[in-house]
Design a protein that fits this description.
This protein is an alpha+beta fold. It is built from 6 helices and 8 strands. The protein has 2 domains: about 35-140, no CATH class; about 150-239, Jelly Rolls, CATH 2.60.120.
Length: about 240
C-alpha cells in the first residue's frame, strides 16, 4: 500500500507543479502584434486622450506613459470599441467640429490590435505600422487652434427660436445634467442647417464645439434650439 501512496503523491505533486508554472507563464501576455505603444499607440493617446488623461486633467487616471496605460489596456479597448472614450457629447453625424477628439475607425482598430496582441511597449526591430500614417490620422483632432478672443465675440442666448446674424464659429451649450439639445439655424432662403445635437450633458465639463467650417448667418437667419429643462447657449462669432 505504501508504494502506491508514494506514487500517488508524486503524481499529485507533478500535476501541481505543471499547473503552477502554466499559470505563471499565462500571467505574461504573449506578444502577437507589431503594433506597439512607442510607434502607434502613444501618438494616438497624445492627440486624443491627453486633454483629460494627463496630470491635472479632468480624469483621475493618467494615460500619458506606457506604465500608466498598460494596466488599463483591456478597459481602454472596451471604452474605445463602444465609443465611450474619448468623451464627446455631440452626436455623430449632426454637425462637424474641428476639435472633435473621436477616434477614427483606423485608430480604433490599432488600439484593439495592440491590446489583443499583448500591448507591447516597443516595436520588434522597428517593424510596425508606418508612424507617419498614424501621425497624419492622430493629429486631426488636435490640430485646431482656438481663435484669439480679440478676434471673436460671444453672445449668451436662451434656448429658443430667435434672430441671429454673423459668422458663427462655435457653440457652447449650458444644460442640466444629463440633458440634451438640438441646435440648428433656419436661413433666409429656407435652408435648415443642423449645427449640433448634444446628448447626456455634463455641467462639470462644459465643452465649446468649434465648427470645422464657420456658418455665415445672414440677416434674417434664425437660431432654433430645442431642449428640455434649463438651457442657455453661448454663440461665438467672428468680429
Amino acid at each position: 500500500m505504501k508504494p502506491f501512496l508514494k506514487a500517488l503523491a508524486i503524481c499529485v505533486a507533478g500535476a501541481f507543479a505543471v499547473s503552477y508554472f502554466t499559470m505563471r507563464a499565462s500571467a505574461h501576455d504573449r506578444i502577437t502584434t507589431k503594433v506597439s505603444w512607442d510607434r502607434e499607440i502613444s501618438p494616438i493617446f497624445q492627440a486624443r486622450c491627453a486633454g483629460c488623461h494627463a496630470s491635472g486633467g479632468r480624469s483621475t487616471i493618467p494615460l500619458t506613459t506606457y506604465q500608466q496605460a498598460r494596466p488599463w489596456a483591456a478597459s481602454i479597448k472596451e471604452e474605445v470599441l463602444t465609443r465611450r472614450m474619448p468623451t464627446w457629447h455631440a452626436a455623430r453625424g449632426y454637425g462637424d467640429f474641428a476639435n472633435d477628439p473621436s477616434l477614427s475607425p483606423f485608430e480604433i482598430a490599432l488600439v484593439a490590435a495592440w491590446v489583443d496582441g499583448g500591448a507591447p511597449e516597443r516595436s520588434d526591430k522597428g517593424k510596425g505600422v508606418r508612424s507617419d500614417s498614424v501621425g497624419a490620422v492622430s493629429s486631426a483632432g488636435s490640430a485646431y487652434v482656438v481663435p484669439r478672443r480679440k478676434t471673436t465675440r460671444t453672445a449668451t442666448l436662451p434656448c429658443e427660436e430667435q434672430p441671429v446674424a454673423g459668422r458663427l464659429l462655435a457653440v457652447t451649450p449650458r444644460l442640466e445634467k444629463g440633458g440634451s439639445s438640438g441646435i440648428a439655424a433656419r436661413l433666409p432662403d429656407g435652408r435648415h442647417e443642423i449645427i449640433a445635437w448634444i446628448r447626456n450633458y455634463d455641467p462639470d465639463y462644459p465643452t465649446t464645439y468649434w465648427l470645422r467650417r464657420p456658418l455665415v448667418l445672414t440677416r434674417g437667419s434664425r437660431l432654433v434650439v430645442e431642449s428640455r429643462g434649463t438651457c442657455a447657449i453661448d454663440l461665438t462669432f467672428a468680429r
